[in-house]
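Figure 6 in text form: structure in, sequence out.
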């Protein structure tokens, strides 16, 4: 009827946690082609574990019954072959599916199929009942359960229930399949085939309108997952609905590393100014770390807005980033919090009382000594303003990426095959594809620098 085969499944277990996939004592699988049952499979399984008395009382299955039965390992291939290309159906489907999926995984089989729960289907197809447990919903519908709490009896009753729903409301099955197959969230002009081609990799992606004009640019560690998140869940809100209706195509550019994706996203947004990137215009914020020298000769700092008369040694998108940067320097270079504008006190800073400051704030450390560490920090910042090449992961295990920075701004990149064994900065520089540098890329670099290994940074004087 729907061109889909269904596997109606029920299992009995010795208890335990479904996520561990252990302890299945019986399984029944009935294949339904949309019109009728075409194949059945049913067997007891030796769970290789003790079956508690209360389980035996419920199912009638005891350890003696399963002693000569196959283990799950012995029938795993058969089960996988019956299930892997079908829609998995069960009453309270997550229980059965999780048990079987985990058990198959232990034997090297990856089960990833759509699944449908007949509890949920029954609530929609037959509203108004107090309970939708298998026994309670089958009784008023005239479905006889031949052997309650045994796999084949429950699976057969579930198959009859499913068949009734299918014949009563085939559209309900169709909509459920559409939702479970990941189609319901799709924009009207993006087909499932197009969605299936989107890579689950890191990079920059582009949305296009009907005239193939770029209307949105984003970056993601998993482009496919990010695409789905754009349109999944509630799509209320005019901008989100407009984007969903307007998108007609998607393309992507793989980068390997998130850092490169971030820089290329900035480049592409600046180049195209897509209409739906209003919240990502990367506007610069005039915050920076200001340097000055006091009357005693100590170099001091403060976080402040940048003005033409008050230049900064480095700048940031916002006050919080500048403040964090300064605090990290205080810790790394043992700078005085008071002289750095972080603490205010009439005499020594609070850190001096706890032996965390050497006393520049109360003349216990001379300006000449204190300023040595200050200049070390300033030299580090100056080095960052030189021409840098930062090496990071590529799009595959066989390559790496090289990112060029001039005056702290992203200026280009290239991908290098590892087998070429190129490490000379000047050789790498000749391979770089240059781009227009933007001031905003400084903020991105600043956020990534603490995460980058020193041996991945090459400085070109």
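Output sequence:
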């Amino acid at each position: 009827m729907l061109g889909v085969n269904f596997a109606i499944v029920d299992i009995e277990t010795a208890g335990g946690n479904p996520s561990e996939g252990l302890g299945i004592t019986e399984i029944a699988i009935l294949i339904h082609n949309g019109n009728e049952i075409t194949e059945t499979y049913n067997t007891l399984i030796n769970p290789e574990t003790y079956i508690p008395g209360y389980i035996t009382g419920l199912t009638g299955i005891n350890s003696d019954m399963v002693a000569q039965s196959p283990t799950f390992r012995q029938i795993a291939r058969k089960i996988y072959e019956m299930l892997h290309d079908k829609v998995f159906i069960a009453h309270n489907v997550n229980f059965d599916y999780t048990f079987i999926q985990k058990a198959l995984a232990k034997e090297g089989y990856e089960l990833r199929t759509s699944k449908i729960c007949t509890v949920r289907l029954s609530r929609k197809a037959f509203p108004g009942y107090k309970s939708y447990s298998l026994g309670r919903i089958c009784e008023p519908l005239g479905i006889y359960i031949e052997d309650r709490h045994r796999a084949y009896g429950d699976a057969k009753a579930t198959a009859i229930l499913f068949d009734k729903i299918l014949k009563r409301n085939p559209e309900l099955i169709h909509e459920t399949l559409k939702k479970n197959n990941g189609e319901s969230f799709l924009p009207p002009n993006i087909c499932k085939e197009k969605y299936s081609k989107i890579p689950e990799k890191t990079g920059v992606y582009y949305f296009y309108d009907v005239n193939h004009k770029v209307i949105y640019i984003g970056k993601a560690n998993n482009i496919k997952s990010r695409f789905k998140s754009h349109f999944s869940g509630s799509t209320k809100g005019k901008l989100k609905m407009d984007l969903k209706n307007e998108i007609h195509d998607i393309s992507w550019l793989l980068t390997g590393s998130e850092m490169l994706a971030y820089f290329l996203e900035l480049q592409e947004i600046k180049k195209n100014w897509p209409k739906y990137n209003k919240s990502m215009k990367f506007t610069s914020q005039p915050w920076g770390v200001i340097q000055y020298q006091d009357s005693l000769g100590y170099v001091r700092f403060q976080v402040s807005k940048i003005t033409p008369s008050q230049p900064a040694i480095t700048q940031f998108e916002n006050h919080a980033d500048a403040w964090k940067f300064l605090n990290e320097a205080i810790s790394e270079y043992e700078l005085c919090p008071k002289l750095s504008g972080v603490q205010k006190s009439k005499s020594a800073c609070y850190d001096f009382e706890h032996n965390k400051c050497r006393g520049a704030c109360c003349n216990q450390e001379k300006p000449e000594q204190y300023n040595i560490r200050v200049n070390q920090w300033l030299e580090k910042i100056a080095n960052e303003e030189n021409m840098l090449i930062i090496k990071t992961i590529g799009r595959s295990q066989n390559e790496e990426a090289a990112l060029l920075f001039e005056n702290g701004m992203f200026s280009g990149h290239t991908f290098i095959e590892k087998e070429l064994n190129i490490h000379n900065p000047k050789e790498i520089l000749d391979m770089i594809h240059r781009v227009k540098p933007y001031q905003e890329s400084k903020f991105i670099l600043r956020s990534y620098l603490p995460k980058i290994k020193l041996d991945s940074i090459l400085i070109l004087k």
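Caption detail: Residues 4 and 111 are 17 Å apart (CA to CA).
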